[in-house]
Design brief:
Layout (H helix, E strand, L loop, with lengths): L3 H8 L12 H14 L3 H25 L1 E4 L2 E4 H31 L3 H5 L6 H27 L13 H20 L5 H17 L11 H7 L3 H13 L5 H29 L2
Antiparallel strand pairs: 1-2
Length: about 270
Amino acid sequence: MRSAVEIADARANKPGHQLYAGRARAIIERASIALRSSTWVPIATGFIEPVLYLLAFGYGMGALIGDISTSAGAIDYTVFIAPGLLATSAMNGAIYDSTWNVFFKLNESKLYQGMLATPLGPLDVALGEIIWALFRGLSYSIAFMLITAPLGLVPSWSALLAIPAAVLIAFGFASFGMAITSYFKTYQQMGLINIALLPMFLFSGSLYPISVYPDWLEFTIKLLPTWHGIELIRDIWFGVIDFSSFSHLSYFIVMIVLGLFFTTRRLRDLFMR
């Protein structure tokens, strides 16, 4: 393993050397080691929630609702909500790791101060934490797909492309979640995250089409990342790829870039003055 001096010398005078050392994998390695000794309960809880929604709404209310009219035709209600809940599952996996986990390391264990005292730069920390959050989002997505497939809710093999799309969604939420969390100082402030996520989930079309809303509310919902994520997964799930699908992709690419920028800038301002 190279020494800290060798790493620092290797990145000296390179563009952005004060921000990035090319060592984001060190953050991932540390997180994987920590996972072995951590409890599995928070991880399982984030995955179980969308599954419970699928069972309660899909097989409970679904029997009363029947089919839903969409651009792909009339679809059974349970099949309709499955892709939306897959997107929600990926979002949960990423957002929990990039908010509460990051908050603890920032304000309780002071772990990032120690990391940034090494040759690591703030972009290394941001990328490492976000990529680790993506692993959780990816595992949630795969597990949810393994549950829905035997239930006959996956219309075709092409729906497997929803998994990499879900990772993109997780990337967007993780990068933005970490950026926002870096400004929070108390656990009470962290409660604002749940206050924001729950309405976005309930009103962004995961459980029913947003066409039921007034025009002004429908327009507002279309500005939210949850709606774009659900629509992207639903387009891929049913094989209805058009211009709007690429607009959803673009939305998350912009979200990722902005999230990484503000996270890196915030970590630099906090610990590298």
